Amino acid sequence: DEVIVPANTYIASILAITENNLVPVLVEPDINTFQIDENKIEEAITPKTKAIMIVHLYGRCAYTDKIGEICKKHNLKLIEDNAQAQGCYFTSTPQHL
């Protein structure tokens, strides 16, 4: 089984996948946000894909409505690595990530 993960994440995110006998599928970041490029996720999905791991890097929110829609469309789990999410906002007000 596979888990989609950003290519520029900290190694611990990938190790969490491989230590559970899963295969990480790396997706390049968006050059403007440095977060996983939501426009490249669907091309990385295969029949073996079970989840998308987003990593809130640099105190910036990686989640977008489009990523949520992709998860629903393909029946994928959404895993969030929040280790670098300090000060992160999804909208303009503080919320749970």
CATH topology: Aspartate Aminotransferase, domain 2
CATH architecture: 3-Layer(aba) Sandwich
- Poorly predicted segments: none
Q: Determine and state the CATH class.
A: Alpha Beta
Helix vs. strand class = alpha/beta
Number of domain units: 1
Distance between the termini: 26 Å
Number of helices: 3
Over the alpha carbons, how many angstroms does the gyration radius reach?
A: 13 Å
Strand content: 15-25%
What are its keywords?
alpha/beta, globular, 97 residues, 3 helices, 26% helix, four-stranded parallel beta sheet, single chain, Aspartate Aminotransferase, domain 2
What's the structural blueprint in terms of helices and strands?
Elements: E1 2-6, H1 11-18, E2 23-27, H2 38-44, E3 49-55, H3 65-74, E4 77-81
Parallel strand pairs: 1-2, 1-3, 3-4
Briefly characterize the structure.
The protein has 97 residues and is an alpha/beta fold. It is 26% helix and 23% strand.
